[in-house]
Amino acid sequence: MKGPLCWSLPVLLVFFQPWETQLQSAGPPPCTAGPLDLVFVIDSSRSVRPFEFETMRQFLVGLLRSLDVGLNATRVGVIQYSSQVQSVFPLGAFSRREDMERAIRALVPLAQGTMTGLAIQYAMTVAFSEAEGARPRAQRVPRVLVVVTDGRPQDRVAEVAAQARSRGIEIYAVGVQRADVGSLRAMASPPLDQHVFLVESFDLIQDFGLQFQGRLCAIDYCTLGNHSCQHMCVSTLGGPQCRCRAGHELLPDGRSCRVRDLCNGVDHGCEFQCVSEGFSYRCLCPEGRRLQADGKSCDRCREGHVDLVLLVDGSKSVRPQNFELVKRFVNQIVDFLDVSPEGTRVGLVQFSSRVRTEFPLGRYGTAAEVKQAVLAVEYMERGTMTGLALRHMVEHSFSEAQGARPRALHVPRVGLVFTDGRSQDDISVWAARAKEEGIVMYAVGVGKAVEEELREIASEPAEMHVSYSPDFSAMSHLLDNLKGSICPEEGIGAGTELRSPCECESLVEFQGRTLGALESLAQKLAQVTERLEDLERQLANQQ
């Protein structure tokens, strides 16, 4: 961030009702130091009580009166979030402070969960886009994100916050009362002591900020004291910050510099992980997967092939934001499959009160095409007709017309049902029929999913074919279980050819293995008999 900016964040945090009144009479004039794109992400979950939310509303109103708001000056956007994200107004919506205040005063809290990671993702990809009013990156206008929250996120924030920071967004994390300090530190930009703020209650934010009222926006913080920066110092919204010369990056102490991590500075293309090594880098794969010849991608399930059909619950109980998490989860499954016409084929069916084939087994030949199609799936809502979905899968999804391979090829057929509640129709007939048809069934339940139904849908043993997560944001732990079961090299058909058991050479192989096992068993029995006879002789001698 370059050039002096308006107020340090602590100054921005004190504009509540008492100070709002002061600003109308004797407060400092709006700052005109330079343009800024400023987005506020406000927690409006159910844990924020009505009077606390009102205090937060006054905070925003008072803050606006301290800024030189305008299309060529400071642009302001406001987002509120709970289990979903709502844009109160984007950066380019208003150029007059009065219009912003009117929108803030009309704000109604969402009063649901606390999906902070989802809110940061929205801010990064949508709120700071040029379509929403952010200025082009070429203009080098600082982009600042202020997250105000009172609780622990119900989703992951570290990874998405790191992505936002890598895109040049400076993040301030403000925690109130019950906020989780670890999550605040995971969100904020370095140095953390200038970007993480924690106060005991909403009422105390005003007292917390009073000590910073005298800091004017034109102050050059770098000249006020010894900043100890190794390379250079720059005045920013939060005070003095150290910067490094080209080709270097700032260390966690906020002052020292080192040669830049190349993985963060280049489009390395590593599928899993990039590791810098001096002036070069290399790609790594997760345990159990090997790096391919291109030096970037990791091998996938290649020991065998399956026809995989995913049945995804799109009922109204899932809710739109959770349905997006389900699609992300489905794509994580696709990531460990060798998707190709000759390898693993994937089809997707969504069900609610009706059933809709989103794409059949034979449509897409690459993982990238499948993942793109998954992201394009639109949420259906309405009821939960799981039995109808199972019937559709048995009668249509695994037909050759839909892209399933002929039974004579003995390619395993796998069905994975994903649901969050009790079915509104009978599932027993078609769950049994699926298994009679040779389809290996997996059931993944979330939230209020019924265990008895999951077990009825799944193949035996249930312990290997049923997975459960208490909520949508915690589904990632199911991936390892599913990989070990669905991935052919670790589960179905592991390391074996798919041959008819009636073929001559298969029978010979079976007989050879059986005879070998019987010979080994006979040797062990002979050893046991010999030991028993020896014991009998010892007993006889003692008598």
TrEMBL record:
- Database matches in InterPro entries: ECM_Assembly_Org, EGF, EGF-like_Ca-bd_dom, Matrilin_CC_sf, Matrilin_CC_trimer, VWF_A, vWFA_dom_sf
Classify the source by domain of life.
Eukaryota
Q: Where in this chain does the record put each VWFA domain?
A: 37-216, 307-482
Query: Does the record bear Oxidoreductase in its keywords?
Result: no
Gene3D superfamilies of this UniProt entry?
A: 1.20.5.30, Laminin, von Willebrand factor, type A domain
Please classify the protein's predominant subcellular localization into one broad category: secreted
Pull one GO CC term from this UniProt entry.
Answer: extracellular region
Task: Give the signal peptide, or none.
Answer: 1-21
- Which SUPFAM superfamilies does its entry note? Chicken cartilage matrix protein, EGF/Laminin, vWA-like
Give the matching Pfam families.
Matrilin_ccoil, VWA
The alphabetical list of record keywords is:
Disulfide bond, EGF-like domain, Glycoprotein, Repeat, Secreted, Signal
Q: Which SMART domains match?
A: EGF, EGF_CA, Matrilin_ccoil, VWA
Q: What is this protein called?
A: Matrilin 4
- According to its UniProt entry, this protein's organism is Jaculus jaculus
